[in-house]
Amino acid sequence: MKKVFASIITIGDELLIGQVIDTNSAWIAKELNKIGISVKHRVAVGDVWEDIWYSLDEESKHADIILLTGGLGPTADDITKPLLCEYFGGRMVIHQPTLDFVTNLFEHVFQRPMIERNKKQAEVPDTCTVLLNEKGTAPGMLFEKEGKIYISMPGVPGEMKWITENHVIPIIKHKFQLGFIEHRTLLTAGIGESFLAEKIKDFEARIPANIKLAYLPNYGMVRLRLTGYSEELNELNNTLNQQFEQLKQKVNDFLVTDKDLPLEEVVGNLLKEKNQTIATAESCTGGYIAHLLTSIPGSSAYFNGSVVSYSNKIKEEILHVNPLTIKQFGAVSKETVTEMAGNILELMKTDYAIAVSGIMGPDGGSQEKPTGLVWIAVASKSKINVKHFNFRYDRSRNIQATATNALNLIRQLIVDNS
Fold it and tell me: Has residue 75 got a pLDDT over 90?
């Protein structure tokens, strides 16, 4: 069985100038992976005729399936449809079911007149199979050429997802014999990527040819992912499970979780298992740790609340940090976060607490307390652990690094208390 590859082309000047983040290709890649399709390339191009044409030529050399999103709107800069019409040698015609659908949208849903520009949404090349879009006005289009398929979809995420789920995936399953792609993922902490690679080099050298190992480092933690491909699902799962068990044994001293879960969910699961709760007192992260914890469905079972004590006034008046502590040691200090953690524990009546204070930058640092200095305290009713970090990222990444390390510290405390 031949392995099937796909390429994803996202179209729009807004993607290249950073005005819009391309989430479409990431989502599509995940969905393709689920059905055994490997993504060869993800390409972003602007609203330039020659660039789109070149991308179609190039990606068709490497992939069996070429998926495009964007450029199907009713304005002059939306050139994807006329380009595809010329590329596949056709002429534009009205697709009556799309016209009927768009007309109904404007007359009965939007309740406003439909102008000629909107009617053009129903024009499609006569060389395509139309994929009706029930979430918008621009239909998807399927083209076939030299044994390969090309599918163009709107760039609006909700419309693209609907067409992918209801048209694209069923079409691919029908037209191609697909193998299976499976993953196993674990998360480590307390060991750098290079040291980890050295530790498991013998294991890595013996991995079967159909399995790949990937290192995914992130703020002092490293995720290891095994990815396997095979035509036989049971055989693939058995091999992957055996390899994964060997990998876990190799890194057991540094293992955080053997599930592909974000750290905030790992912490939440630990708390749920013990029927315990947590709260946060955040200065430099501005509530980001609370956001991560509450982004997990069901987090109300274990998350009590947070105080974003960005100013010293709030630290003193709400968290009851002693003003003398801040005056003597500063807001960014071991002493201040220790009081913050202990006091939020009592204030929120929780089993565990996280407190953070630091200098995220780009300004505010000094020789004594440089930008990136962070103090983190994690507390239970019987113990408080405090640790400082010196991050060297930009402001946004310093906040993320603080949150990641705070969550790992509280995870360790919960495990130690077991």
Answer: no
Q: What are phi and psi of 317, to 5 degrees?
A: -85, -35
Which residue bears the tokens 């995420």? 157
Position 166 confidence tier, pLDDT thresholds 50, 70, 90: very high
Task: For the chain, list the domains and their CATH numbers.
Answer: 5-175 (3.40.980.10), 180-257 (3.30.70.2860), 263-416 (3.90.950.20)
Residue 376: name the closest of 337, 415, 331 by CA. 337
| Close Cβ partners of 69 (under 8 Å, ≥ 6 residues apart) | 8, 9, 10, 11, 24, 25, 28, 152, 153, 154, 155, 160
**Mean pLDDT in the chain?**
95
Distances in Å between the Cα of 234 and the Cα atoms of 2, 161, 216, 240, 362 are: 19, 30, 27, 10, 52
Tokens coding 125: 């090349």
d(CA 333, CA 335): 5
Crossing angle of the two packed helices 263-274 and 395-416, in degrees rounded to 10: 30
CA distance 393 to 276: 34
Give the model confidence (pLDDT) of 20-34 as tens digits.
999 999 999 999 999
Neighbour-count burial of 129, counting CB atoms closer than 10 A to its CB (0-12 exposed, 13-18 middle, 19+ buried): middle
What tokens appear for 292 in the block? 């991560």
Strand boundaries in 84-134, DSSP class E: 92-94, 123-125, 129-131
> In the prediction, which pLDDT does 114 show?
80
